[in-house]
Automatic annotation (TrEMBL):
The keyword RNA-binding does not apply. The gene is PXN. It comes from Platanthera zijinensis. SUPFAM superfamilies: Mitochondrial carrier. Belongs to the mitochondrial carrier (TC 2.A.29) family. It is found in: Membrane. Solcar repeats lie at residues 33-124. PANTHER family: MITOCHONDRIAL NICOTINAMIDE ADENINE DINUCLEOTIDE TRANSPORTER 1-RELATED-RELATED. It holds the Pfam family Mito_carr. This is Peroxisomal nicotinamide adenine dinucleotide carrier.
Length: 138
């Protein structure tokens, strides 16, 4: 699903921009973000994106599951709207988030590490590029 990473990056960039803005306006001045702060921003961004998109994945998985004619009518869906209605009617709101704990642990940790490593690589690259420009040629 394309929407999850899109929402994730949008949230991450918005939170990063806000944090940098707050840092620039503080009395300390603009101080670079630590790896741990980036880690937390990445984790929160992925958590937000997953909370928004997970129900869509659950409905999609239910629709793709084998639906036999002999099955209980509650588990046989005519389409997306029918699946959403029946899930809510027979199982409640929580049915849209079944199995999410495992997904959160796996995906949030992976995203947080990814953003932290990305930002550290960007910092290192900028540092290397500025050092190579400053060095006098012989």
């Amino acid at each position: 699903m394309v929407s999850n990473p899109s929402i994730q990056f949008m949230l991450y960039e918005a939170m990063l921009k806000n944090l940098k803005k707050k840092r620039a306006s503080s009395t300390k001045g603009a101080v670079g973000l630590t790896a741990f702060e980036i880690f937390l921003l990445g984790a929160v961004a992925k958590l937000g994106a997953t909370l928004v998109t997970y129900p869509v994945n659950v409905v999609k998985a239910r629709l793709q599951a084998k639906q036999c004619l002999e099955m209980d009518r509650r588990d046989h869906y005519q389409g997306t709207g029918d699946a959403i209605r029946k899930m809510f009617q027979y199982e409640g709101f929580g049915s849209f988030y079944k199995g999410m704990r495992t997904k959160i642990v796996q995906s949030v940790l992976a995203a947080a590490i990814l953003f932290m490593v990305k930002e550290e690589l960007v910092k290192a690259s900028k540092l290397l590029l500025t050092r190579s420009r400053v060095k006098p040629s012989r």
